Amino acid sequence: MAAQTAIRFPDFSSVDGLEMIRDAKVVGNVLRLTPATESRAGAAWFHDKQSIGSGFQTTFQFQLTETGGLGKGADGFAFVIQNSGPRAIGARGSGGGFAAGSRPNGSRPGIPWSFSVFFDTFLNREEGDPSDNYIAFRTSGKPETMRWPQDRLAFTRKLHVRLKDRKVHTVQILFHPPMLAVYLDGSRKPDLEARVDLSIVVDHQGAAWVGFTASTGGGYENHDILNWTFDGAAVSSTASVVSSDITYLMWSCLPNRGLCTPERAIVEPNSKGFHVVLPANLEWGASVPNPAGKTVVVTNQHGIICWDLQAGEAGCSGPSGISTDAGKHVVDPKAPAGALIHREREGRTEFSVNHRVNATVKDNEGLYEFDVELK
Hints:
The chain is mainly beta. It is built from no helices and 25 strands. It has strands at 7-9, 18-22, 25-27, 30-34, 41-46, 50-51, 56-69, 76-82, 114-120, 134-140, 152-155, 169-176, 179-184, 192-195, 207-215, 219-232, 266-269, 274-279, 286-289, 296-302, 305-306, 316-317, 340-345, 348-353, 365-374. Strands 1, 3, 4, 7, 12, 13, 14 and 16 form an eight-stranded antiparallel sheet that branches.
């Protein structure tokens, strides 16, 4: 069950409600995820799950000190959302305390069912890191598919601050489904923003554990969190909540997309009619037989799709759609933009996302899942 109270740590003189794993400990009134020592990993989780699916905002300050060893400081820390439990931890070194290690037979596995905002402070050339000073979104699914290095859903090429300059830095992370944005040191524009699919990391109530991980390898630094607040369901969105009521297997997705986009439509008979999974990138891409022209009743609609990739949050919606820019520029001018729509054609009922007619449909991301009954 998701906790009803927000997380509030003005400092860490009290750690009531916090689970500290491995090398994480409190030093004074600071949460030290790892000391400035080689080959360490630490994690800290709030022991109650938090509401994630409807949106959240979190703010914290960090400071990286006593940098040394390889790269003059390593490896970085992460804000992590996960559904594996409050004792979870990943590998040292480039694993960041959340991912799998680089040596499959001699390193700790990563945290399955997790999403991480990684503040990376070491240039791993074998991973294709852009620098030793960047932020990345990374994710892991079921244990048997985890690998090193993790895929980056999005990352910064450069930052306007130096993460390991020993100064105190402030981070704000906002999730307006399906857009996740990271602001560093009060920047007016996001330092990193992308569409993300968090349905893989939440439970049936849209909740997950939240916390921090960090690691060192041949390089090292103190990874310190100075304060932390977290508010779940505090951010409104036009999209449906991210929910694991979606039964589609989230690991059967097209590559290089922020939202899980199935490889094909799925139509399966059920006790009342049909269960349908409709990828956002297919126009009239799913259909059910309806030769008698019966009334179509659609129920249990859920999912998030992005039908205008240039518009950010305004180009994404749930099955009810969004009124912005609805009209002659979408497939069905009488329905909201982004809505789940249907039509009758040659004895079948066909379904589509109400996307822009001047957009490239194949680039759309996400899915709608729903049940169909013919009456």
